Amino acid sequence: MRIISLELKNFRNYASASVNLGEGLNVLYGKNASGKTNMLESIYVCSVFHSPRTSKDKELVRLGADNATVKLVLEKKYRRHTINIQIDSQGKKRVAVNGIPVNRAGEMLGLLGVVFFSPDEMKLVKEAPQERRKFMDVGISQQQKSYFTALQRYNKTLKQKNNLLKEHKSSNIDDMLDVWDVGLAKEGAVIIKKRTQYVATLLDAAARFHAAISRQKEKLTLEYECSIDCEGDESDIERRLLSALKEARQKDKELGFCTVGPHRDDIRIEIDGKDSRKFASQGQQRTVALAMKLGEVLIYKNEIGEPPVLLLDDVLSELDETRQRTLLEMTTGFQTLLTCTEFLLNVPATKFKIENGSVKK
Ligand SMILES: Nc1ncnc2c1ncn2[C@@H]1O[C@H](COP(=O)(O)OP(=O)(O)OP(=O)(O)O)[C@@H](O)[C@H]1O
Ligand SMILES: [Mg+2]
Question: CB within 10 Å: which end of the chain, N or C, has fewer?
């Protein structure tokens, strides 16, 4: 798929801007704080319907303006789509696709597929488990709506359960907890099963990229690290999760929060058998993160049958020449938006100069 055009009004530091994007590599270059990341962010919002940088949507509205709008025209295999997003100064978001209002943005997840690389993603390996769960959640949600639905239900129930555990530590709350646990086990099993499959597929792709980037010197392994045994089918997992929740009940009551389930899980990352989360050097961390992101791209393309759009924010400067080349080589065949302060590589690209919230071709 590819983005044909993008129009921004009062989005971040853009009063009004419009770009027609090229097919392959698009380079957005300009000084720091000119608005390069802001533009990628507006595209990400059209895909995932929230920002990769903030949970407060009102920050996306240009200071002093009443509302921000983003209009994106997308070409997919069979047709063109127009995505319109309006965010008001309270942070309320309205989404319309092809002129028709969409009440639940989640339904449109995956219409525009993006894979976002930024220096933050490059820290995927060493950051807290939450970052790796987010990596799986965003990656799988874009491909499978049923995952996104299960995740939303799970999180809602978990919140209710945790409130109950926190507020009523001593009273008799077991009947209510029994109800929540059944829900958590059901949705949790969907999440665990899909994450296990995703990480197994990811390993295949990521290990190949990793070997190429590290010149076959190191061996990468990835494994979904689950608080319960995640073998078998969904109903096996559901049964095991339910009994694990029951077993943890007393402890959870004492602590005031739920201690088992996919909200505590992680991806185990090893290089040559050593836990990378603890032992990898900075260069190794970046190599692994890059391999995982490239893996995500490949899985998306295989699953959906169409390439996603790649958003590469400021990543070249973090990488050495071999990795820069590997990254750009693999973007062939994908529409890519790359930001940098200066673009010196001698490769064909459509270039846009970004200056103080405006675009110059
Ligand atoms: N809601 C907003 N209203 C107005 N300006 C904003 C808003 N949000 C962010 N900005 C401004 O946008 C600018 C940052 O833009 P952005 O992060 O896109 O820069 P960049 O070009 O990616 O820079 P760098 O090269 O440093 O990464 C900052 O000057 C910031 O103050
Ligand atoms: Mg930036």
Answer: C
Residue 252 one-letter amino acid? D
pLDDT of residue 63: 96
- Res 209: pLDDT: 87
Separation of 36 CA from ligand 2 center, angstroms?
Answer: 6
Per-residue model confidence (pLDDT) at position 169: 67
Residue numbers in the chain where pLDDT is lower than 50? none
Q: Can you give the pLDDT at residue 170?
A: 63
Pick from 8, 10, 11, 12 the residue to mutate for probing ligand 1's pocket: most ligand atoms within 8 Å of its CB: 12
The pocket around ligand 1, CB under 6 angstroms, is made up of: 12-13, 30, 32-38, 59, 61-63, 314, 341
Ligand 1, atom 15: closest residue by C-alpha: 35
Minimal CA–CA distance to 354: which of 25, 36, 13? 36
Mutate to test the pocket of ligand 1, among 6, 37, 60, 341 (most ligand atoms within 8 A of CB): 37
- Model pLDDT, residue 167: 87
Q: Give pTM, 2 decimals.
A: 0.88
Residue 39 Cα: closest atom of ligand 1 = 18
Strand order in the sheet with 309-313: 114-117, 309-313, 336-340, 25-29, 350-355, 358-360
Say if residues 143 and 111 touch (Cβ distance below 8 Å): no
pLDDT at 14: 98
List of domains in the chain: 1-113+308-361 (3.40.50.300), 119-305 (1.20.1050.90)
